[in-house]
């Protein structure tokens, strides 16, 4: 262990880093925490991730790798909770966390999402250790219209997020866009916010090299169809419905294969049912694949075999999938919002699109699919852009931020 090694407690109340991303409530946050925690442990830090037990069969402590353990706390029932149910267990989780730290202290707590921040705040204060906060996403404005099928925001969320913006010792944002949102919406102090860019595993996500994959991608020569892939939890915020409507506007004979990857969140699958119905209604059953949630290696294979990725999400703090596609040498058509404006270089690694008009999306998809030279050029530029984003570098930036938070506490 190096001399400046830290003992770091990640707090991740509502979802476990051991869950498969794309299932339950697991998504980008799970991928990020796991990757950063692994990078920190490999760098010699001692890392624990505290999460709520949602399955009675899981052991209390799971050793993931040397220096990295996941610890399950028995707050609330040992079953999956819908998002709104987590507020009721924040206090209990905080008490259990405090009892853990009494036996096995840490140098700092890094809370992921606001539930975790509220649970950890008084623990950190009581123990006189810094609280570092990551939001991952921030509540929509109370009066902002809901996307079709979206559930209303918990009333306590925005207040909780604002409290954390003023009380946490340091806030970690994943993009410049998120940093600005923390300042504008939560009143965060610009000096208390550090942007720690995310990484991508370029050994998992790499461009197509095998013959099978190359054949699949070479749809022009095969006289087949190109493939558009969309990846995310099947939640209204992800805009899957928009891409279905856009592809439906294309003439049936030129429609690409549409591959949708991800599973519904635990609080309902009406949205997913609506997507299946829309595909049937538009006569797209034979050219659309619903893959469900895929494990990382299978997902990586599907992404590198695709012609393009589309990210029609209504909002995205970062948009990890766009970076994963870039690392796979796959151009991305994404909405010009939030972190996607940083993850995609418009005109170079992909195309940014504004608005909800399916015709506009259809035109961008058709234009890119119809230009083999541009596809090739953007794919190469995307890979080049992504290889600079490593999880090791992301972990190093986190440690710099932690050192600032620790120095601030002891000053
Ligand atoms: N993901 C996955 N399997 C799936 C669907 C998604 O591994 O079936 C991963 C995806 O590769 C990405 C993460 O889940 O790493 C989603 O992150 P993103 O930032 O795109 O969205 P979020 O879930 O944070 O809203």
From TrEMBL:
Residues 27-199 form the Glycosyltransferase subfamily 4-like N-terminal domain. Residues 216-384 form the Glycosyl transferase family domain. GO terms for molecular function: glycosyltransferase activity. It comes from the Bacteria. SUPFAM superfamilies: UDP-Glycosyltransferase/glycogen phosphorylase. One of its GO terms (biological process) is carbohydrate derivative biosynthetic process. Keywords: Glycosyltransferase, Transferase. Pfam families: Glyco_trans_4_4, Glycos_transf_1. Coiled coil: none annotated. This is D-inositol 3-phosphate glycosyltransferase.
């Amino acid at each position: 262990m190096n001399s400046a090694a830290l003992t770091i407690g990640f707090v991740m109340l509502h979802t476990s880093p051991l869950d498969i991303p794309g299932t339950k409530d697991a998504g980008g946050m799970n991928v990020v925490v796991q990757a950063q925690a692994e990078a920190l442990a490999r760098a010699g830090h001692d890392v624990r991730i505290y999460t709520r037990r949602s399955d009675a069969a899981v052991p209390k402590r799971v050793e993931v790798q040397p220096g990295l353990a996941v610890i399950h706390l028995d707050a609330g029932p040992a079953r999956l909770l819908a998002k709104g149910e987590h507020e009721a267990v924040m206090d209990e989780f905080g008490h259990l966390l405090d009892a853990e730290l009494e036996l096995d202290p840490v140098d700092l707590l890094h809370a992921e999402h606001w539930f975790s921040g509220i649970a950890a705040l008084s623990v950190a204060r009581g123990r006189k250790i810094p609280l570092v906060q990551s939001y991952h996403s921030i509540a929509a404005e109370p009066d902002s219209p809901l996307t079709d099928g979206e559930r209303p925001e918990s009333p306590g969320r925005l207040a909780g997020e604002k409290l954390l913006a003023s009380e946490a010792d340091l806030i970690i944002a994943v993009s410049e866009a998120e940093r600005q949102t923390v300042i504008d919406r939560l009143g965060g102090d610009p000096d208390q916010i550090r942007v720690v860019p995310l990484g991508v595993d370029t050994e998992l996500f790499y461009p197509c090299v095998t013959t099978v994959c190359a054949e699949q991608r070479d749809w022009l020569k095969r006289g087949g169809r190109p493939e558009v892939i969309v990846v995310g939890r099947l939640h209204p915020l992800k805009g899957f419905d928009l891409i279905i409507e856009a592809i439906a506007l294309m003439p049936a004979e030129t429609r690409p294969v549409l591959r949708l990857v991800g599973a519904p969140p635990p609080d309902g699958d009406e949205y997913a049912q609506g997507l299946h119905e829309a595909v049937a209604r538009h006569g797209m059953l034979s050219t659309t694949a619903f893959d469900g949630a895929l494990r990382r290696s299978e997902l990586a294979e599907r992404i590198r075999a695709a012609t393009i990725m589309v990210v029609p999400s209504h909002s995205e703090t970062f948009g990890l999938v766009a970076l994963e596609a870039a690392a796979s040498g796959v151009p991305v058509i994404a909405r010009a919002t939030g972190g996607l404006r940083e993850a995609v270089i418009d005109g170079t690694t992909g195309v940014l699109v504004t608005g909800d008009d399916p015709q506009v999306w259809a035109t961008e998809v058709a234009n890119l699919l119809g230009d083999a030279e541009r596809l090739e050029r953007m794919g190469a530029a995307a890979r080049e852009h992504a290889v600079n984003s490593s999880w090791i570098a992301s972990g190093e930036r986190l440690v710099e931020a932690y050192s600032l938070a620790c120095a601030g506490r002891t000053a």
